[in-house]
Amino acid sequence: MKKILFLTIAICLLLAPLSSFAGCCGCDPVYEYNTILEVKSAVWVRDQACVATGAIIDTLQAGEVVQITHRTDGWYKVISPRNKVGWSGEQFFMTTSKPLTSSASSTSQTSSTVPEPVTNPAYSSSTLSWLKGYILLQVQENGEAWYVDPATFKRYYMKDGAIAYEMMRSFGLGITDSDLAGIPSVADTTAMKNYSSICSSNSLANRLKGKILLQVQQHGEAWYVYPKTCRRIYMKDGAAAYEIMRFLGLGITNADLGKLASAILVLKPYTTSESSSSSTSSSSSTSQTSSTSSPSTVINVGTDNRCGSDPGFTSSGSQIAGTGLFQKGSVPSGFNYKIVTQHILDRINYERTKRGKSAIISDQRMADTASIWANEMHNQGQITHTRLPENMIARLWVWNNFKIDFCEDWGWLYENIGGGNYSRSQGINESVMDSMDSLFDYYMSEEASNGIHYQTIMHDHLTHVGVGYYFDGDNNSGQLYTVLHYGGLYGNVPIIDKTW
Fold it and tell me: Are 223 and 180 in contact (CB under 8 A)?
């Protein structure tokens, strides 16, 4: 698939006056640039021209007029009305004939008008429904970013790139290539700001504005449909999503933000120092049973105890993972699960070990959870990480629904998803392996940018992997819903050797 590539913004550290570098984040030269500009939407001021290392020292509010003294690639050096000197992204400014916002008026405003505390109502105010799908920047605080989910009409705090990635996948809506082609795309945020709106002339784009779309017929690539223009922009990974969505954000006061109900995507920390809030196992038992399953249902866990002699943490779910009793759809005759699984395991371990990472093993428990989620994606009709009826990340879904012994509380559990095809004319197993190769090649292509799929495969805490499929077709051909679950597990349940 032809992928849209972005011109990445080269970002510099603050340089010594024009000649010598004081250190660099992108090492572009700094030039004098004496002008006055107006702030288009709230933006942070950083002490360095660098998102990765620049500390936030002030927030410029929409409508403030500031002095610009220097510029570098993508950044302006500004003097804020509060006499803070730092760097802000150039796309947040526009030309103006207004006078500078004085420090006196700024001080007067901030001293006489104390920002209201942000409340959390049970329901969002209908008067702000036009904000659905926007990123909101808290201008009276430190520019905190909130995403207003169009489906739930609730705001979610977008702390950083990791949270942005979870939001991107949790809120993602599957879309076909043909429908996606009906929504014009832009190359970058600058182009997005410059393009006119097509909301009134493109009914599909208008209906999907503010949503995050996932290409279900490719590799789940994510696109954000900017509500103001109804055009889409590609989000390569969490870091890209965070920057893109912030650049397109709107400033909002505490009072208005408090009119929107908030919700949280819980990212439970993986620390063994904290006690688990769920039931834990302190014994070295090598079996698991389910209170809701047949009393005879027992999973014998092997002795591959990479987390030590004790499982450490047992998830609280009632479903038994590891039985192989999972849905796969219309599985074509001749499909050999173990052969196909070994193929992708070999590819994973080849790439991990040549980079100094430990090899991982296939495990029926992860195969079961992955297969069940593949079935759920089919039920939803889209390639998605979203758990319904509530937005829930993959590891929490597994933790709550399956009784599995993990190395650490809440488990090291990650999920990669995608599509694919199978065909008897090519060979059932061969066509599935080809689809997996294509998917895996896409994941590994993110190495240069350290993309999230690549990070998942190379995670230091992984010990096991399982691959799940849903066959959507007939005995000869069809489409695949594919899921890979990676976990840090206690013991091992070997992959069941089965041919349909």
Answer: yes
In this structure, which amino acid lies at residue 250?
L
CA distance 212 to 164: 11
| pTM assigned to the model | 0.47
The pLDDT-based confidence of 400 (bands split at 50, 70, 90) is confident
Supply φ then ψ for residue 485, to 5 degrees.
-110, 125
* Burial class, 423, CB count within 10 angstroms (exposed 0-12 / middle 13-18 / buried 19+): middle
End-to-end CA distance of the chain: 32
Distance CA 113, CA 65 (A): 19
Rounded to whole angstroms, how far apart are CA atoms 369 and 275? Answer: 25
d(CA 315, CA 326): 19
Question: What is d(CA 44, CA 38) in angstroms, rounded to the nearest whole number?
Answer: 14
- CA separation for the pair 227, 131 (Å, rounded): 8
- For residues 374 and 426, what is the distance between their CA atoms, to the nearest angstrom? 23
Beta 464-473 vs 477-487: how paired, if at all? antiparallel
Average pLDDT rounded to a whole number, residues 54-74: 85
Residue position matching structure tokens 């004496």: 34
pLDDT at residue 125, as a whole number: 85
CA dist list (Å): 467 to 141, 223, 413, 416, 443: 45, 26, 13, 10, 15
DSSP strand pairing (262-263 vs 154-157): parallel
